[in-house]
Amino acid sequence: MTKTPFLAALVAAGLFAADAAPAAAALKTAVFAGGCFWSAEHDIEHTLGVTNVVVGYAGGARPNPTYPDHEGYLEAIQVTYDPAKTTYARLVDGFFHNIDPTDTNGQICDQGPSYRTAVFVANEQERAAAVAVKAKVAATLGQPVATQVLPAGRFWMGEGYHQDYARKNPAAYGAYRIGCGRDAAIKAVWRGR
Prior knowledge:
Elements: H1 5-13, E1 28-34, H2 37-44, E2 50-58, E3 74-81, H3 88-96, E4 106-107, E5 110-111, E6 117-121, H4 124-141, E7 148-151, E8 156-157, H5 165-168, H6 170-180, H7 182-190
Parallel strand pairs: 6-7
Antiparallel strand pairs: 1-3, 1-6, 2-3, 2-8, 4-5
């Protein structure tokens, strides 16, 4: 195939690329359990570098958990992020600042095994970063951190009606959040820190 002289001149001048532009940096994912997955999604989705957040279930063994039947699982979020804009450690730190990491049995008004908090790590680098952030949080708060650092397993996406719940149902979510007292409780944990 021959190029016209005009097209050849554009390519030579760098004004027209003969090949596709280089691919963007590969996106990565992180999985966190922060109590109610609606709140965990709501609190992290506008973080710098975050491109997508979905809610679901992590940490269990049985296949195909559902909202009515997710015993052994934690309500969790899978965060897709751009490593050119943020780091895994920054995401973990942001996650900790949006929960009460000292609560051993859930988060604020959501108590019980499925509402406990965790950082799920996929490799040794993530584990080291999560452990370091957890230690920093414990030192900052001056008390033990209940949030666990656990090996990542399969993340099961939650039902469609749970995705983007706060955005799709602002009145209902707002009433839940106020009634739960989440904002006041998180502020009390992190006040002045």
